[in-house]
Amino acid sequence: MLLLGFVFALFLTALLFLLRLYLVVNSGSNQPPGARGHVAVLVVAGSGGHTTEIMRLMESLSAAYTPRHYVIADTDRMSEEKIVTFESSKPQSHSDLQFTISRIPRSREVHQSWSSSVVSTLTALSYSLPLVFRLRPDMVRDLNT
């Protein structure tokens, strides 16, 4: 019975994802980013060197890419420090309360068993999806691949 519930939840999640993807693709615009105003950016920062890489990419974005919403793991203090340092180094007009940092549970800790990572991944997903729907970003960037 538990397996059936899990499969149903997974199917429902996939269906909602595909529906959202369809709506986003069909509501797109042929205009370049920033042509209609600001572009809300959602950045998923990973621990280690990934945050440094994403900060290098973020340096090349113009002031049109605001607000910037960063998502980090709830145990990742180093990425938060790097993001705050990066944002405070920007000119005040570019960075004045134009960014947020949200924390979500890690989907998998180092050395965590694969069987228990299914539950932790679903938990992280249950935090991530409402966050994306609340922030409604125009662009999502993730270097955790």
CATH domain class of the domain at 38-106 and 122-145: Alpha Beta
Number of strands: 4
Largest sheet: 4 strands, parallel
Which whole number gives the mean pLDDT?
80
How would you spell out the order of helices and strands?
HEHEHHEHE
Number of helices: 5
Describe the protein's architecture and organization.
- With 145 residues, the chain is of the alpha/beta class.
- It has a domain at 38-106 and 122-145: Rossmann fold.
- Helices cover 52% and strands 14% of the residues.
- The protein has 5 helices and 4 strands.
- The chain has helices at residues 2-26, 49-59, 77-89, 92-95, 114-135, and strands at 41-44, 68-73, 99-104, 139-142.
- Strands 3-2-1-4 form a 4-stranded parallel beta sheet, sandwiched between helices.
- The chain is flat and about 55 Å long.
- The two termini are 33 Å apart.
- The model has no long low-confidence stretch (mean pLDDT 80).
- This is UDP-N-acetylglucosamine transferase subunit ALG14.
- Belongs to the ALG14 family.
- It is a single-pass membrane protein.
